[in-house]
Model the fold of this input.
Amino acid sequence: SQQGEEDPQALSIQEGENATMNCSYKTSINNLQWYRQNSGRGLVHLILIRSNEREKHSGRLRVTLDTSKKSSSLLITASRAADTASYFCATDASNYQLIWGAGTKLIIKP
Amino acid sequence: DAGVIQSPRHEVTEMGQEVTLRCKPISGHNSLFWYRQTMMRGLELLIYFNNNVPIDDSGMPEDRFSAKMPNASFSTLKIQPSEPRDSAVYFCASSLGTMDTQYFGPGTRLTVL
Done:
């Protein structure tokens, strides 16, 4: 089952703008991960944030986690055409497997 | 390391035929996952192994699907007989532990005519 719910389902912005995607989940977690999937490729891990962390950065990526609201956001700053992809969140809410969201499809217009 | 290796990358077959998908996980990873991805249903976990032992196969659609992991470096997903609704991209992923970062293979695009 898919616990994580990303929103929006799709996002189209101009190159250079910032893109923000959100992920909500239902039960307590130890950590939350974000992955990217380029068209026709496998998913690639971007960043992991632990439940005791509120914010994490990696290059142009900024992830926040609000455990009280059971939500996370992924911000991509100064977007580039190469950022066009689908973005998924995954939580470890289950005892033995990651629970995946349905993904946000991001399109960067040149 | 070469990453997770899957073969074939593309498979086109006719309904009723047997299909075997193959996966070589990253060396040293203890967990292996098989996923199916379609536009309609998104990413679905079919089955996963820990230390070569199947832990949860509740995602396997029906008895036509079976998966094996005879050793730490090889796994197969078999569909017999295949049906058009099995058309999808099948991903294999591996990780150190079941809750750790997963590394995905390039996927096998299966088309059943």
User: Anything to note?
Assistant: The first strand of chain A starts at residue 5 and ends at 7. Chain A touches chain B at residues 2, 30-31, 33, 35, 40-45, 48, 88, 90, 92, 96-98, 100, 102-103 (CB under 8 Å).
